[in-house]
Amino acid sequence: MALNVFDHDEYRPPVWKSYLYQLQQEAPHPRRLTCTSEVENRPKYYGREFHGMISREEADQLLSQAEGSYLIRESQRQPGTYTLALRFGNQTRNFRLYHDGKHFVGEKRFESIHDLVTDGLITLYIETKAAEYIAKMTINPIYERVGYTTLNQEPTLKKLLPHSPEVPDGPVPVKDGRNTEERLTSLVRRATLRESDMVPKYEKVHNFKVHTFRGPHWCEYCANFMWGLIAQGVKCADCGLNVHKQCSKVVPNDCQPDLRHVKKVYSCDLTTLVKAHNTKRPMVVDMCIQEIEARGLQSEGLYRISGFSELIEDVKLAFDRDGEKADISSNAYEDINIITGALKLYFRELPIPLITYDAYPRFIDTAKITDPEKRLESLHEALKLLPPAHIETLRYLMAHLKRVTDYEKENLMSSENLGIVFGPTLMRAPELDAMTALNDIRYQRLVVETLITNEDVLF
Asked: Is 0.85 surpassed by the pTM of this model?
């Protein structure tokens, strides 16, 4: 990936492209064509723009006076259904109109007909005037040029950003209440992140969600304006990257979660958590295992005996609130079963299990192999299906459980017993029927038991 590095390692913000913004400013304005007579059976959620049961031809004649004019009519062929008739490009366009508390003709939902028409006119105008331009937006993106530098540049970058001599091509002076540094937050973070040699470079897909941006926004992939009134694009819920929906399909899988977006430890995607905290494994796994090995390896029934659920919930809240500063020492929780319970709870609450849904069938099939050597070979191949952060966490956990079995005489926990405990915790059947899931339990146990017994050769 090319680096956008200039003299003195100064980062310069990209040039925002104004063409699509200018087109939005030029788009026709909505003109409501009111009905002068009282219409019977007018739906309560429509206003004077409702003209009742008139034909397409009548609507076309009424709207022929001005670009952007619109009305709502009831279908003559399907009474009880409604059509938005809109004048654009010197012709009348008809859209089936729906209402479920909000108005919509497609995916976007609006509080008012006026907003729907405004957004529609913007979209029609831009997609008509700039169809070829939009189709090529993802070519030569600024995202590829931003790259990564080091955190050592961050103080200089923060100092220089507000005074950057780069003059944006787009209408940046718009008074939208944000300064240059705020607008560039996501890109600046990407340009200043240091990837530690000690931490694996896990690949992570962006967690894009449809988003409504307040005030003008530019795509941080292609640098083009994000047009429309609502749902102009998508935002990564983990790192805050803002892009067009079409650009999101070509953004590299290099999400670097921001702790401002990752609010908790439990119930957070594992790869998201480790990238947000820049660690090899989730801190809750490391800290719990270290605490257990420091004072609990000889505890009878380790992992089998449950601690008080209220105190386990306390540990969960402590990690969610304090992260790596959470106190799980014997001073805070004397009973080691509380710590083992918190660790098991962490794995149970993962949205994607440690042994992922995608890999689950392969692991179950492996457990059904009766020949020990062939089963081991198959298990080795199955492990390759796991994401890097998952396999690293699994490796660390299995090495720990192997050490637990070294104290089997004291804690009475064999690899088989640990397989019974951790099988359903680390593996969850993806949408299987109850009977199949029940039958899988013995195979889940066997998978974990084999992983523990052979952790030195499998990892």
From this structure: no
